[in-house]
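Quick one: structure tokens for this chain, please?
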Amino acid sequence: MTRAAWLGALFFCLSLVLQALWIRAQRRMSLTQAQKSYGVCIDVEIKAATPSMGGVVFLVLGLLALVMDWSVDSLLLWSLPLAGGAIGLLDDGLKFFSHSSEGFRSLGKLRVQLIVCAVWTGLLFLGGRLGFWPGLPSPWWLTIPLTFLGSVGMMNAVNITDGLDGLAGGCTLISLGVTPFLIPVTDFNVTAVAVLFFMVAGFLFFNVRPAKTFMGDTGAHFLGGALAALCLVNGRLLALLPVGFLFGLETLSSAIQIFTIRKLNRRVFLMAPLHHHFQRKGWDETEVTTRFWLVQAVGAVLLTLLLLSMAQPAGAF
């Protein structure tokens, strides 16, 4: 626990310093992102001038965490967020060099995600780490595809949620706050959660409204991969439900909107994902963000309590 505390403090300080330096460097290089012409068109000039690749610092700190604790457990945990972040970095880079809001083609990016997550899921299977929840039957023919879908889905869900200042980062902190109640309390797990929590806290210092930097696809894919890995490496597939509660709602709203537009020729929401719907209804960006944080906190805590009532995981708080 002591090691987790000092590593958390170290990574918080490193996150603050590296983000500050990286923001300056991005401004000098004009590393900003073109805004979508079909977006909400609110504060377009301000957001277009904001550095948009803050997630690069996550990659640096994730690599540092891996090197500092080189082991099979560490490699399994950090490989998914690092691979996801690399995919996001390619996407962000293409957007910057093409001066467009569209980078990696959606289907192309999905194919790469599927390959990465398939390989990673295979490694978990070979390591005997797949499982739904302690005490529940976990047949391999069901846990393998659901673990695969969970890892791909979480990456994309965080990316979809990352649309307002502080929204995805704040929800990630809440998710990390309930994670220790869902996974075994080992020195490795506690340290990993602490490192991630304070890494994200350092970023959020600069990302709350008005944001000085955005995480970009690099950061969103990294965080989605990290949240998935914490649950899945420990054989807690169902833990994705509380950890990804708000992210899941955002993804579901986008799926519903796409389906109804294409099949029924009508819209359910004023705009998807869900946070843009409430912006269209006139909510201030800060109102949407803080209320969504509250929804994530309530949903995560309630679902965590529900899971803990089903079966007490050995070694959990």
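Confidence is low (pLDDT under 50) at residues 313-317.
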